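Appendix C: a fully annotated inverse folding record. The material below is reproduced so that readers can follow the format used throughout the book. The structure is listed first as tokens, followed by the designed sequence.
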């Protein structure tokens, strides 16, 4: 994880937590519909815990994590339960989760490290497990106006990177637009992949 990007979230945890984003609720609902009732879900980059709260309310067994201790503390306060600080490369479980939810967080992984992080996520999924992630679309890594690093993948590059990480029985990719913390609209890629059985 890029240090300047992590520092941004450390410094802005409270302000970031004030944002209530509703545009992803339909994507979360669609993701959860692919899982069995009470499924075990790993959430990466949980932020202020909004998605965590929704998954818990629907009866799922959620392990919520964030790379920023300050952000994890904000989520823990909101949810009334401990939230782990976990960097993506620290994930070391095998076949533990029915689903992995990684909304707007893997887009900060340096391009040359993304395949290895995706491989760790794939390993952590049970056979047939479902993995959701979103990325800001582009052609090359770079920084936004807030100095946060983004890997800015193209659709072709992202498909190739997922393939490098391991085999998937299915992979779907949709495009959309969201308004970021910097108040700018961004083209996004929303990816749902299912680990092969």
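Designed amino acids, in order:
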């Amino acid at each position: 994880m890029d240090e300047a990007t992590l520092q941004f979230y450390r410094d802005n945890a409270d302000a970031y937590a004030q944002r209530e984003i509703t545009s992803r609720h339909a994507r979360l609902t669609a993701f959860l519909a692919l899982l069995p009732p009470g499924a075990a879900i790993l959430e990466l980059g949980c932020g202020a815990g909004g998605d965590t709260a929704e998954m818990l309310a629907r009866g799922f067994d959620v392990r919520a994590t964030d790379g920023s201790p300050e952000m994890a503390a904000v989520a823990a306060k909101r949810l009334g339960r401990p939230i782990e600080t976990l960097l993506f490369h620290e994930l070391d479980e095998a076949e533990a989760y029915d689903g992995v939810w990684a909304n707007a967080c893997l887009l900060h992984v340096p391009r040359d490290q993304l395949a290895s992080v995706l491989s760790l996520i794939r390993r952590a999924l049970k056979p047939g497990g479902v993995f959701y992630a979103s990325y800001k679309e582009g052609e090359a890594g770079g920084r936004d106006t807030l100095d946060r690093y983004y890997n800015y993948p193209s659709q072709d590059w992202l498909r190739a990177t997922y393939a490098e990480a391991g085999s998937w029985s299915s992979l779907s990719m949709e495009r959309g637009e969201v308004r970021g913390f910097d108040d700018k609209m961004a083209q996004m890629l929303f990816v749902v992949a299912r680990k092969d059985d």
